[in-house]
Amino acid sequence: MSRMPDFIIIGAMKCATSTLHDQLAEQPGFVMSEPKEPNFFSDEENWAKGLGWYSGLFAAAEPGDLCGESSTHYSKLPRHPRVIERLQEHCPDAKFIYVMRHPIDRLVSHYIHEWTQRVLDVPISQALREHPALKDFSLYTMQLRPYFEAFGRQRVLPVFFDHLLRHSQDELERVCRFLAYGGKPRWKEDMGAKNVSAERLRVSPLRDLIVDFPPLAYLRRRFVPQQLRDRIKSLWTMRKRPELSADDRLRLAEVFDPDLAQLGQWLGMEELSCATFKERTRDRSWEWVSEPTQG
Questions:
Q1: Distance of CA 209 to the CA centre of its chain
Q2: Angle, vertex CA 74, rays to CA 31 and CA 132, nearest 5
Q3: Average pLDDT of 44-67?
C-alpha cells in the first residue's frame, strides 16, 4: 500500500520550517521527505509526477513510523489555489503544522530570498508595491482559514518562530505530542539554523559551473587564499540587509494588524499586533480557543 504523510509542515515561508523539518528527521521513528519541499500538491510540474512518485518519498517508513514533509507552497494563497482540494482527496487524515514569524520580519526575509533567486531585482520599497505575495504570505489568518474549514482547527498546530528558537526542546516536545509520537524527542543543538537568507548566494549559473567543476575546485582551494575567496563570494551576497522606511513599516502595520488581531482572537491572545507580536509569542505556546468563523 502506498504511504502518504501523516503530517505536513505547511509554512509559513522563511519561518524556520527547514530547521523544524531537520530536527524531526533526527528523531527515531520519523521519516521526513527528501527533498524537504516536494511541493507536490501545489506545483503543477510536481503534481504531474504522480502519486507514485510522491508516496515513494516515504518508502523507507516502517510500520509505526511517522511520515512528514514540509512544503511552504501549501500556504501561499492565492498563488496555489488547488492545494486544499488535493490534500482533502489524498491526505484526508493528515495533521498540519504552521509556523509564524513577525509578519514584517518574514516579509523582509522573503524579499532577500527572492533577490537571491533573481525573482526580484528592485528595492524593497518598490517590491512592496509591485509584488503583493510579499504581504499575502504574511497574512496568517488568510492562509490558515481554508485549512480550518477543510480539516478542522484541531488538526492544525500553531507554532511561533521566536518561541521555537528560544524554547526549542519544549516546543519540539509539543510538536511531537500533537503528532502522537511515542518516543522522547531531543533537540539537536549542534545542527544550527537552515536556509538563513542573509547567507544565501545569489543565483549564478556561470559561477556554479566554475565552482562545481572538480579540477577548478581543487585549484581554487589549493592556490587561492581564503580571504580572496571570501571577497569574491561577497559579489553574490546581499551586502546590506534591506531596511524598510518608517512610512513603509507604518503601511505594513496597517495591513497586518487586523489580520493579527483575528489571529489573536483565535488563540485567546489579547492585543496581538506588529508592535506586540514578539513579546506575546516568544515565551508561551498557544492553542486555538475560538472558531475561525468568529470575527
A1: 29
A2: 145
A3: 97
The residue type found at 52 is G
Of the two residues 121 and 275, the one the predictor is more confident about is 275
Q: What is the pLDDT of residue 236?
A: 41
| Residue burial 192-226, b: 16+ Cβ < 10 Å; e: rest | eeeeebeebeeeeeeeeeeeeeeeeeeeeeeeeee
Strands (E), the chain: 7-11, 30-32, 66-70, 95-100, 156-160
pLDDT one-digit tens code per residue, 204-234: 555 455 445 566 565 656 665 766 545 544 4
Task: State the residue for C-alpha cell 505530542.
Answer: 177
Which of 54, 141, 107 is CA-nearest to residue 249?
107
Report the alpha-carbon distance of residue 207 to residue 202 in Å, rounded: 10
pLDDT in tens, 18-31: 999 999 999 999 99
d(CA 101, CA 114): 18
Summarised one tens digit per residue, pLDDT across range 95-119 is 999 999 999 999 999 999 999 988 8
Q: Say how far apart CA 263 and CA 290 lie, in whole Å.
A: 10
pLDDT, mean over the chain: 89
The highest-level CATH class for domain 7-198+239-281 is alpha beta
Measured between alpha carbons, how far is 262 from 214 in angstroms, rounded to an integer? 54
Domain spans in the chain, listed from the N-terminal domain onward: 7-198+239-281, 203-236
CA pair distance 283, 162, nearest whole angstrom: 8
Nearest to 190 by CA among 175, 168, 162, 163: 168
Confidence check: pLDDT of 7 > 50: yes
Please, what is the end-to-end C-alpha distance for the chain in angstroms? 43
Q: Contact at 8 Å (CB) between 146 and 77?
A: yes
Letter for the amino acid at 233?
Answer: K
Residue 200 reports pLDDT greater than 70: no
